[in-house]
Uracil phosphoribosyltransferase
Amino acid sequence: MLVIIDHPLIKTKLTTMRNKDTSHAEFRSNLNEIASLMVYEILRDYQTKSIDVTTPIDYQFHGETLDKEIFIVPILRAGLGMVEGILNLVPQARVGHIGIYRDEQDFSAKEYYYKIPNVSKDSYILVVDPMLATGVSASDAINKLVKEGFNNIKLVCLVGVQQGVKLIQSNFPNVDIYLASLDEKLNENNYIVPGLGDAGDRLFGTKGK
Ligand code: URA
């Protein structure tokens, strides 16, 4: 399933991020804010279980808590820019990391880091990366998790294109994909058009003046 999360706040913040004159500080805060807004919507599908708490006036309250553990897996490095925004809403979430970089010559995905929490295989997993371009990095990341037996995976990106969406859907029909925008196409360097440039560089201020 592909879901484009349509919200005026997401649209306006994403427009700020697309602007080439937006500073890395502003890019970063907007990325985290959009991640929060998206996750607020995505978590509607998650189930809760009952939990009893005692209120300060000694009342036994039958409340609710998420029925499973949740963990976030940012694809390094740009995915890191979404973690804080998600943790603001789900502070109990654990964070795994998958390091994948794009080979500049053949655009293949190369893995250099993998560290995932030791939790139940049916935990809720949010794989996060702002850009879903060719889909190769996200596909590799999800493949590692599936091979380990995790079965409850959602992919959360800001901007994607059909090519990446199709790759994930054909490799992992059970993985839901969430985007803030489905953009037009990839250019000859596999950048998303109109896109927002190199998300990692813009997030960390590693290019330009
Ligand atoms: N990764 C990016 O950071 N930007 C793109 O446009 C595509 C992949």
Observations:
- The two ends are 40 Å apart (CA to CA).
- Residues 78, 131, 133, 191-192, 195, 198-200 surround uracil (CB under 6 Å).
- The longest strand covers residues 48-54.
- Residues 57 and 128 are 41 Å apart (CA to CA).
